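Sequence and fold:
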Amino acid sequence: GAMMDNRFATALVIACVLSLISTIYMAASIGTDFWYEYHTLSPAENVSEAGRSIWDEFVSKDADEKTYTDALFRCNGTVGLWRRCITVPKNSHWYSPPETDMTTNCISFSLSDQFVEKYIEPGNHNSGTDLNRTYLWRLQFLLPFVSIGLMCFGALIGLCACACRSLYPAIATGVLHFLAGLCTLGLIGCYVAGIELLHRKLPLPEDVRGEFGWSFCLACVSAPLQFMAAALFIWAARTNRKEFTLLKAYRVA
């Protein structure tokens, strides 16, 4: 009896902690702008020549994918799920010496940007819709919210389970965490595929290096945590049920 109960209690506490950490990681990765980073080896002189126009184009309402991607290449850009950022000189005199203070400016993708179609040739709307990239982008925008939603719903069911002193709902919580893990994996897959396809269309210039940033890594860490939490919830509920049935059988006997 008591020995077993401790094991479940421990499993459930660990599962809850993992669940909480993965929710925090997920939320942080959605909210930050370092999913992908470009390192421009010679940014300063690039920017001072055409800086003002790059910035104006980058911010403008109708900046198409090609325009803002070129700016990201040239100005140490970083991209999140919601925002894109470039680093430009702080002062308005673009012709001043290149060793001026640099500042990072960001602009959000609007909701319509998230759902707008991507073209086969980025920036050329006569080239037809690139369905793969369009849907990958929409999925990478929706999946993290589904993932967090499932975990929060799982947490609610878990709280009810504690209130009712029943372990049956722990199985439901486990299943929801498992589905959340699948969504997070899907998100990671969609993001990587989307970046790959974009760089095939718009290859990185010679002097630009691209790499996945720490926001992306947080999502990658979140997925295994969700699966581990799911496994613990389900294990605790199932084993406890077996124990309970055995105990009842023993009592009856």
Remarks:
- The domain at 1-245 is CATH 1.20.140.150 (Butyryl-CoA Dehydrogenase, subunit A; domain 3).
- The chain has a mean pLDDT of 87.
